[in-house]
Specification:
By secondary structure, the protein is of the alpha+beta class. The protein is built from four helices and five strands, in the order αβββααββα.
Amino acid sequence: MKLSLILIFIFIITTLGIYFYGYPAYQLSQEEQRIRNSMRNIPNNAIATNLQNIAGFSAKAEMLNQYPKFLVYIMLDDYEKTQLDPDVAIFVRNFSCYGLNRLTQYPELERKATLNIMKEDQHQFEYTVKNIFGDVLFQHTQRMSECPNFANIESYTTPKNNE
């Protein structure tokens, strides 16, 4: 009788331990898979027109999804020069990394899953900037896990509301 109660108690404790320690890992794995599938299904040739204020210039952009590599072609409207304005180059270099800051607004599970797949799959954006004639003025490749703010976003914790 005592032995069966001890075995039942051990079984209950083990089940609860698996649930409390295993379930969060399962949730994270499921969220990673959902986000990975979503990113793989971003349509090729996605076009953004009438982009305003790329360092003061308007442009069009086209993205090709070659998961985990994303190729972004930026065509500057009405830009006839053969040398790129340095402000545009700075903007393009910083664009992806600044975008990571939006992850602080995501729920913790989604933020952690997104950062995990960026690191595991080595997400990379390759930007090519062209003038109105199609001349390549600038190219930049950014691996997301190498952004200077990646570690800060990874260690970010959502502030608690004091109500």
